[in-house]
Design brief:
twelve-stranded mixed beta sheet; globular; GLPGLI family protein; about 325 residues; GLPGLI; about 20% helix; two-stranded antiparallel ribbon; signal; 4 helices
């Protein structure tokens, strides 16, 4: 019996290892994300372009706008370095358009695991159990783009959701943390239309085509282009960041609170402070070192956006 149990444990470990092995995306889905963050300003919801990479055993959900802006910011920095070449007193100014979602969601349905990447100068990785949503599939159908979809309803994290999924696309995945239907979740929204994921296009990944830079083609209608920043290699490769520090939700919240209270002190403690005689230019997002003379500290507006009274995950009513 002990040998048999050991055999089962080895088999399960092999499944986990295979499920979390980096793999190329087979398809990419674009979504228009809308969220009423402040219920006193319902006519001004937060909007963002998001993208979902679909692999055979995994998926990755990220902000398309963040990758686009990060690439444009890097381009600004490269231009300013070239313009100030030979100047011992370099000074950089990096600008950004708007706050974007820093979180990246990685789902591994085969082993019931979800991982969330967060960034506070240093990338962090928080592991969660894959949400189990009790969906009720209905007979209603609709077409989204060219995709024939079926309707399902379910309750998740304090909200009642309607989801439209495509049975012809055998991916048990969807935007954000939504999952568990027998087909790709193409569109979803809660009962109050405070959280919406609207379908904005689907494309097949062609591994034979060269990948363009985001800064050269910022439109979200094409393929997800290469980001010249903290992501290395092919952007169509679904892979949990290997340089991320594993932490818990509780510990990450402590770090996030510390950064919000005093961004400059936090960055200095994390090794991102200004160098000798350096200036701090506050704008954009991230931290960029400009050489031995100057360091540019790049802090996002509001450190992740405006304060909200209506988070996407609500406490369950008792």
């Amino acid at each position: 019996m002990k040998k048999f149990n050991l055999f089962l444990m080895c088999c399960f470990a092999a499944v986990i290892a295979k499920a979390q092995t980096p793999e190329m995306a087979k398809a990419i889905v674009h979504y228009k994300f809308t969220h009423v963050r402040d219920t006193t300003m319902r006519d001004k919801p937060y909007t963002e372009n998001m993208v979902l990479f679909l692999g055979e055993t995994s998926s990755a959900y990220k902000s398309f706008d963040k990758k686009t802006q990060d690439a444009l910011m890097r381009k600004q920095l490269e231009q300013q370095i070239a313009e100030q070449k030979g100047n011992a007193n370099m000074n950089f100014k990096i600008t950004n358009n708007k706050p974007t979602t820093r979180s990246e969601i990685y789902q591994f349905p085969a082993v019931g695991k979800l991982m969330r990447k967060e960034s506070l100068i240093t990338p962090y990785l928080i592991e969660e159990t894959m949400p189990a949503i009790s969906w009720k599939i209905t007979a209603d159908t609709a077409t989204h783009g060219t995709l024939k979809c079926q309707k399902a309803t379910g309750h998740f994290r304090g909200r009642d959701y309607t989801a439209w999924f495509c049975p012809e696309l055998p991916f048990r995945a969807g935007p954000w943390k939504l999952n568990g239907l027998p087909g790709l979740i193409v569109e979803a929204y809660d009962a109050k239309k405070e959280v919406e994921f609207k379908f904005d296009g689907l494309e097949q990944v062609d591994a034979t085509k060269p990948v363009a830079k985001v800064a050269d083609q910022p439109s979200p209608t094409g393929a997800f282009m290469k980001f010249n920043g903290d992501d290395e290699g092919d952007p169509n490769l679904i892979s949990v960041p290997t340089n991320a520090v594993k932490t818990t939700e509780k510990e990450f919240n402590k770090l996030q609170d510390a950064m919000r209270k005093d961004p400059q002190a936090f960055m200095a403690a994390m090794g991102g402070g200004a160098g000798p005689g350096g200036n701090m230019v506050r704008s954009g997002g991230g931290a960029i070192t400009g050489g031995p003379v100057r360091t540019v500290i790049n802090v996002g507006p509001g450190l992740g956006g405006p304060q909200m009274n209506n988070p996407i995950e609500l406490p369950e009513k008792k």
